[in-house]
Amino acid sequence: MTSAAANVLITGAAGFLGARIAREILGAGELRITGEQPRPLARLTLLDQVAVPADIAADPRAHVVTADLGTADPEDLPGTFGGIDAVFHLAAAVSGE
Question: How many CB atoms sit inside 10 A of residue 11's CB?
């Protein structure tokens, strides 16, 4: 039996940890969500207020959203938050902001 494909959201995707996790997930091509069998990756949504690295954005499974999570209205970001199976919330204010 094949598991349904996984849709993943990474906030802070342009940062060191966010980009590292994105590359790991894209490289693996699947994600094991606690208590489940590994699921193939369908879509990886990358949310950050700055551009994510080009190699990550170029992957056809990547959906890049450039927005400030603190001020963005979810209604202005259609399709970003629906159907998400797992979230890696790494967005944070950086020094000097």
Answer: 20
What are the pLDDT digits (tens) for 29-56?
Answer: 999 888 889 999 999 999 999 999 999 9
Distance CA 52, CA 49 (A): 9
Residue 7 main-chain phi, psi, to 5 deg: -115, 125
How confident is the model over 55-85, as pLDDT tens digits?
999 999 999 999 887 788 777 777 777 888 9
C-alpha to C-alpha distance for 92 and 97, rounded to whole angstroms: 10
pTM of the model: 0.87
CA 2/CA 74 separation, integer angstroms:
32
